[in-house]
Amino acid sequence: MINENTRDHRQMRARGGRFGASLVAGTLVALALACGGAWAQSTPESASLTRADTDEQRIGDLVVANHILANEQVLDGFGHISVRSVRNPQHFYMSRALAPALVTVDDIMEFDENSEPVNPQGRSMYGERYIHGEILRARPDVNAVVHSHSPEVVPFSVTKTPLRALAHLAGFLGAAPVPVFEIRDVLGPDNDMLVRDKRTGAALAKVLGARAVVLMRGHGMAVVAPSVRMVVLRAIYTQLNAKIEAGALKLGAPTFMNAAESSRTDPPERPWEIWAADAERAVRASAR
Ligand SMILES: [Zn+2]
Predict the structure, then answer these.
(1) Hey, where are the domains in the chain?
(2) Measuring CA to CA, how many Å separate 235 from each of 130, 147, 221, 264, 276?
(3) Residue 128 Cα, ligand 1 centroid: separation in angstroms?
């Protein structure tokens, strides 16, 4: 896979490929990191048990995850994903302010326990990074966070119809309605709908509680998981569950999953491989 990508990269550079040169180079580094060591020698699901968990590994997955979530239309030009640092668990990594489809390893920045940059180097940052910092502070079991403005999900944040686990791969949503964060409860009616500080981020984390997903009224959602790959699966299937639920509601009263049915966990390794391959193909196509 790496050899093929490298050949494509060389061909593209020979043609004087535009911004894609640095983009694909960053992606290749990420893929090399993601596929390194035992990972490259094993089947995806068995390899998940043997991959070393390092900051480099997490950053490699983070870059690929940005491309996957853009390609799967969970993130558009906005939205972001973060991962906790192994070396300093109070810190986390996230891209500089950039459309997720364009993120490379060089764009990843380290943020401290107050969601402030360790080494900003004049780079612009996502204004809503406090979503990530405050959830990671409140939830030691969480290592990765996605914030998305998914249009499939937003209707469930602005109506009395709750988002609930309906599709069997979305059991992580739980049998009870997904909680909804009302920003007016924190900032009052005179607010700009954005989570721009620690206080608002902490209030969002409180509404999330021990759940995997919290909706944000009229805005989107925050999704959490123990790993980058798992949070990508959850973000994609939250959006899919919302789509299925909206369709089912048009036909009648859906039968939602109960507590036992929603307790299953699906490994993210198998879909990750195809999502990553599709995303990197799209990256290479955009560079041509
Ligand atoms: Zn947002």
Answers:
(1) 56-268
(2) 19, 9, 9, 16, 15
(3) 6
pLDDT tens across 45-80, in order? 444 445 779 999 999 999 999 999 999 999 988 999
Residue 241 parent element (H or E):
helix 228-251
Residues 232, 271: Cα–Cα separation, whole Å: 10
Domain 56-268 = CATH 2.40.160.40: no
Q: pLDDT at residue 31 above 70?
A: no
The residues assigned a catalytic role are 128
Q: Which residues contact 230 (CB under 8 A, 6 or more apart)?
A: 144, 268
Residue 129 Cα to ligand 1 middle (Å) = 9
The alpha carbon torsion through 67, 70, 71, 76 (nearest 10 deg) reads: -150
The H or E element spanning position 93 is strand 92-95
Q: What is the pLDDT of residues 163-193, one digit of tens each?
A: 999 999 999 999 999 999 999 999 999 999 9
**130 C-alpha vs ligand 1 centroid, how far in Å?**
11
Mean pLDDT over residues 85-99, rounded? Answer: 97
Dist. CA 19 → ligand 1 center (Å): 26
pTM score: 0.83
Position 50 scores a pLDDT of: 55
H-assigned helices in 20-154: 20-34, 38-41, 44-47, 55-71, 130-138
| CA end-to-end span of the chain | 19
Beta-carbon contacts of residue 37 (< 8 Å; ≥ 6 apart): 51, 52
